[in-house]
Amino acid sequence: MDKEGMRSRGFTIVEILLVLALLATIAGMVAVGAVGMIDAAKMEPPDRVLKRAVLDAVYHASERKAPAFLRYDGKKATFLVTDAGGAILAEHAIYEDMPSGEDDDDVWDELDLPKVTFQAEGPLAGEGGGTTQLEDRHLVLTRIPFQSAVSPPFQAKIAFSDKEQILRFDPFSGFVVVDEDE
């Protein structure tokens, strides 16, 4: 047989090695992407965690018949439900498996942590009742009180990954209020 006849029936070793190298490169890129997805799976969206924490605070205030407070620990990206004495009743972390020791503080510095601020909604005034006479700096809250499962009307501003989200909460149910404009 001549070389031309063999060439038409199969692949050369060089062609086979090139295909294997391309497959290995693609497999490597997929593996790196999979590791990234696994790391991303350890983080839950901050708005979802906040909604769960608010409902948990409503539950604890109702169940214990004592005030419960919701606050955000910005250093650990965790929403804390506490009692009047400061004892932690529930923790809701945004990052699932993160170190908790003092030696691991530098790990928290490397993460993109959400910034969450709570703000009370002032009493509405004016002809149409659409504005408040209080300044924004007087409405900022460090923690939200829940007494008998009721909170003051408040909103939470979440700044995370170059996005800003404002959630308004119903003071009686703890659910997010959806504006008719949206």
> From the 3D coordinates, which CATH architecture of the largest domain would you assign?
3-Layer(bab) Sandwich
Major sheet: arrangement of strands: 3-2-1-8
- Gyration radius (Cα, Å) is 27 Å
The biggest sheet, with number of strands, parallel, antiparallel or mixed sense and barrel status, is: 4 strands, antiparallel
Topology pattern, helix = H, strand = E: HHHEEEHEEEHEEEE
Estimate the mean pLDDT confidence: 83
Number of domains: 2
**Helix and strand composition category:** alpha+beta
Total strands: the figure is 10
CATH domain fold name of the largest domain: minor pseudopilin epsh fold
Task: Report the uncertain regions.
Answer: none
Main CATH class of the largest domain:
Alpha Beta
The count of helical stretches stands at 5
Q: What does it look like?
A:
This protein has 182 residues and is of the alpha+beta class. The chain has two domains: 3-41; 46-169, minor pseudopilin epsh fold, CATH 3.55.40. It is 36% helix and 26% strand. It is built from five helices and ten strands, in the order αααβββαβββαββββ. A four-stranded antiparallel beta sheet has the order 3-2-1-8, covered by helices on one side. It has a four-stranded antiparallel beta sheet with strand order 7-4-9-10. Strands 5-6 form a two-stranded antiparallel sheet. The longest helix is centred in the first third of the chain and has 29 residues, at 13-41. It is elongated.
